[in-house]
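S.,

As promised, the 5,6-dihydroxy-NADP run. Input:
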Amino acid sequence: MENFTAYNPTKLHFGKGVTEQLGETVKEYGKKVLLMYGKGSVQKNGIYEKVIQQLNSINAEIIEYSGIKSNPLVNDVIDAAQIGKLNQIDVIVAVGGGSVIDSAKVTALAIANNTDPWAFMKYKVKPQTTKPLIAILTLAATGTEMNGAAVLQNHKTKEKIGYVSSLMYPAHSFLDPEFTYSVPKNYTAYGIVDLIAHSLEAYFGEGDASLSDRFVEAVIKEAMEYGPLVLKEPTNYELRAKIMWAATVALNGQTSHGRKYGDWGVHDIGHNLSYLYDTPHGATLSIAYPAWLRLQKNRIHDRIVKLGNQLFGTNSADETIALLEKFFKSLDCPVRLADINIGIEKKEEITKQMLNNQIDGMVHKFTDDDRKQIVELMF
Ligand code: NZQ
Ligand code: ZN
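Predicted complex:
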């Protein structure tokens, strides 16, 4: 087992009605609130109204920044930070999925350090401090509610990249499974794929951590058992709760303690596909994971077999990959580029993007030949 530091300062409030404590929690940090959200789902499903009631109950001064898109842009963070600085806000309240919460994390850094957010994202400037962030999660998928990561895209540099800082853990996260009832079927499924992918990135990391392996297996089994059921019963509280908690645990440190690194090669492929075609994050992963496993099949054969044995009771790497792919398909998620209407004529464009950005894993490194092969395997 590798040495590790367990650190997770987020206070996570989970369950029915937890946001009734939002007002009191915000008050601990001040009354000038930068309220960030996306393109309007929170207004349609009534979550916005509940948040506003809570903020009004403490006479908060609310400054809004909305319209953050899925696969979020650094430009929105620059604009939100500008508004936050101008209004000298005390605290950020972010209401949404990964895109909104990630944007809010980097906005908090940009306000507190008065620095170009992309300089943090590229690890050129180390932030010294941040503004407190309170997250209200509306979509179970990314784990951002209890980790120090954020992912943004930048059209100038043609990148979608992740950034990790111990300053970016939300101070509080509120997770009410009822808030996810209105997530459409496709995004619910992408969330299930995402949480499985996070578990796998930990599993294929470096180091021997048998307890973390067991956590990974447990989280994936939870997703495989309850994921298909929640798609049939989107307003079943228990099912939404199980998937929501599984998504948090998949990327809050629990599945990777005792390992040196997770791998993240599949995420790098996915981010570049999202950059090119604005494909939802989870949909890029259901295409990229089977391709990555096929590329690595002979290199990490025994590890794939161990996984397959635990998840499916098979001793064949090929069968493990085929069964994982079949599961993604059963959720109606794409497993080939053709499934998201990307034809072979795009091969050159995708290969160029993968080569230019030198997509890579942390442990399982790619050669340029691997980068080309990965693209082939996704068609
Ligand atoms: O913009 P609105 O109108 O709010 O609609 C959103 C968006 O269209 C909608 N939605 C969210 N909650 C809803 C809802 N619709 C109805 N009811 C609700 N309760 O869902 C759509 C997708 O939202 P988004 O936030 O983009 O999805 P997700 O949570 O999957 O986040 C994806 C982003 O997170 C990054 C991804 O790369 C991607 O940019 N990731 C962040 C990670 C992290 N910080 O740790 C790790 C992940 O691996 C991932 O990379
Ligand atoms: Zn992910």
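The chain has a mean pLDDT of 98. The pocket of 5,6-dihydroxy-NADP (ligand 1) is lined by residues 38-42, 45, 70-72, 96-100, 102, 138-139, 141-144, 147, 149-151, 179-180, 182-183, 187, 191, 194, 251, 267, 281 (CB under 6 Å).

- D.
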